[in-house]
Amino acid sequence: MALFYVRRYGGEDEQEEEAEAEDRARVLLERLQQQARARQLQKQREAQPQGREGPGDAGLSPGGEPGQGKGKEKRKRESEEQPSAHRQKKLKTKQQPRSPSEERAGTEEAADGSSPTKKKKANRKKSKVQQERTEADSEEDIKQQENRNNFKNRSNKRKKADEETQGDEKEKKESSEKAEGNQTTEEELPLAASGEEADCPPSSTMIIGDYDAKPVQKVQPFLPQWLAQPKRVQKRIKDNLCPISDVPGIHPRLLKKLQMNGIESFFPVQAEVIPAILQSASNGYLLGRGGYRPKDICVSAPTGSGKTLAFVIPIVQVLLDRVVCHVRALVVLPTKELAQQVSKVFNIYTDGTGLKVALITGQKSFAKEQEVLVQKKVTGYCSLADIVVATPGRLTDHINQTPGFSLAQLRFLIVDEADRMIDDMHQNCLNQIVKAAFQGENDSGFMLFQRTKPGPITAASSCSPQIPLQKLLFSATLTQDPEKLQQLDLFQPRLFTSVYSEKNRDGTEAEQDTNNKYTLPEELSQCYVPCDLNSKPLLLLYFMLKMKFTRVLCFTNSREASHRLFLLVQAFGGVTVAEFSSRLPPNERKRTMKEFDQGKIQLLISTDATARGIDVKGVNYVINYDAPQFIRTYIHRVGRTARAGTAGVAFSLVLRIQERRFLRMLRDAGIRDIQKHPVKGNSLKPLVQQYEAALCKLEKTVKDERAQKRA
Ligand SMILES: Nc1ncnc2c1ncn2[C@@H]1O[C@H](COP(=O)(O)OP(=O)(O)OP(=O)(O)O)[C@@H](O)[C@H]1O
């Protein structure tokens, strides 16, 4: 716009030209006055003592601008400089060189001598000289202005530095570093910098969004007190055995039974948990201690540490005095095999007591199971079982479809492998059990003792005798996620958990935070073998045939993988091998497990169906043929060996691409003592020829199986 203005009016209108010349003269005068003032100021400052100078003076530009005016003076000078800079800018725009046509017109006018008067000529000459001088001045002014701005920037920095000297040493350093970082930018943009003093925050101000590296505190999950401060249980079994007679309150009958079964001492978890359960039922199974509802109990202890006996003994003891048969204890487990195993232990300790144990897993027909649960009499239905051991699916079927099957008198609800049972799949079943337990009136007829849904204890609620329902949760990998446990609606729970310890540098052991950490049996040795996909079958054969491994439980990640590996090893020959997965009928699975238990099978290739809870004595090795994807799977798989204080070794075949993730998974769970155990390719070479022949056989077998399926 300014350029347009100059072109349109420049040199046409004499009056305007004059006004313009006057304007320029005025501006020039002002500038000269300013320069004079600046020089005066400089002299004044030079006359002042040097002591006021800040440490930043050395950084002045070679232009030698005076640097250390007091704030007041500086502000005054700046207020003077700013408008002049503005005017100067305007002037510079106005004083753009004329266009050649305009210049030509002027020259032509003078040549033909037609109209301009002498005065006008003189004026024009004078204004031209003035214009040239103004242009020269304005250039010089711009330079000066730049210098002033540079000076201002530096004096800002010096001011900051002065402020910082009052602050602590560290802040000063950071701030001056920042100022230095900004210096280049400010010097590159001197005109823009003039107004910056007001915008610039004081050095003590924290700039939000500034990315200074600061240590960020990790957010710790908030745990309820019962989870944060559990009762610690020693995990070293052998060093912490407790003679059975030393545990108070065990019934002599049960002591005898224990001895008869070769149990002279309790394992640490049993020595802690058995008295706790017995104490909570010290008033009999109908009332809690002092008439109050007993606390729920959660137990998280390593695989093979004897958790089963920790609930079997106290439950049998509490129910020894029962008069009428009702379902008083219900044990829920995720698999048929586990339920079978636990019911076996109950059978041992209830034998000869009159207590009856029913196994409900779907292995028998529904009608047969009903027969062991209830009996119809003239007076109504009566229970035939005191203790029911069940899998979730079949249990809910009986709750819904078996007339007379009542949980209204249930005193103990035991959830074994509780972390798995809390999974969505089984959660619904647990809700149904609790609902059935608080159903009240039912087909079983008269109820001597009523049961109300737990709530705040009031005078009214404590008037009539209550049958408390106590929940007992057990697992080697019990979740410590309060939200998940909340789903079980636990009442003032107590947690018993194994001590997680880490070795210090000096060899001593230090207790660690148990959150999200799992403990493994002390006697377990862990190794992993880095390998590639093709060498995995050879490695398994190498372990079995060259290393002479015996009693090996080998895990794969799928039924198909188990089956193929079984066929391959069978085709290779030289190893007594069997497979175990849900693709086999229950009878065959039972038989296989028995043979493996008896030592007739040296290698059992299995899916995770045997990973949890299965107690086979004398498993020497666990081989993770397929690396487990989850830490809990790893813990339960490797826990099939090194049980009850015996030694065991776990090998994991880990593909090289899985290695980092696998190790991180273990490290995150607090497992660090795993050894790398590479096997050289040369060791596998002698097996290759026979292996290739086995592969051909396998191909043929798979084809035959497919044909059989189709037929
Ligand atoms: N006090 C004891 N003395 C000797 N052996 C015992 C004792 N308690 C349990 N055992 C044996 O220890 C083995 C492991 O016990 P159990 O199956 O109860 O372990 P667990 O903690 O439930 O393991 P998992 O978590 O794998 O289910 C069993 O064979 C059992 O007979």
Automatic annotation (TrEMBL):
It comes from Zosterops borbonicus. Keywords: ATP-binding, Helicase, Hydrolase, Nucleotide-binding, RNA-binding. Belongs to the DEAD box helicase family. DDX51/DBP6 subfamily. PANTHER family: RNA HELICASE. Transmembrane segments: none annotated. Signal peptide: none annotated. The Q motif is unique to and characteristic of the DEAD box family of RNA helicases and controls ATP binding and hydrolysis. Residues 30-41 have a biased composition (Low complexity). RNA helicase. Its EC number is 3.6.4.13. Residues 12-21 have a biased composition (Acidic residues). GO terms for molecular function: ATP binding; hydrolase activity; RNA binding; RNA helicase activity. The lineage of its organism: Eukaryota, Metazoa, Chordata, Craniata, Vertebrata. Residues 1-204 are annotated as: Disordered. Residues 539-685 form the Helicase C-terminal domain. This is ATP-dependent RNA helicase. Gene3D superfamilies: P-loop containing nucleotide triphosphate hydrolases (3.40.50.300). InterPro entries: DEAD/DEAH_box_helicase_dom (IPR011545), Helicase_ATP-bd (IPR014001), Helicase_C-like (IPR001650), P-loop_NTPase (IPR027417), RNA-helicase_DEAD-box_CS (IPR000629). It catalyses: ATP + H2O = ADP + phosphate + H(+). It is an enzyme of class 3 (hydrolase). Residues 288-496 form the Helicase ATP-binding domain. Residues 86-95, 117-128 have a biased composition (Basic residues). PROSITE patterns: DEAD_ATP_HELICASE (PS00039), HELICASE_ATP_BIND_1 (PS51192), HELICASE_CTER (PS51194). Residues 129-146, 160-180 have a biased composition (Basic and acidic residues).
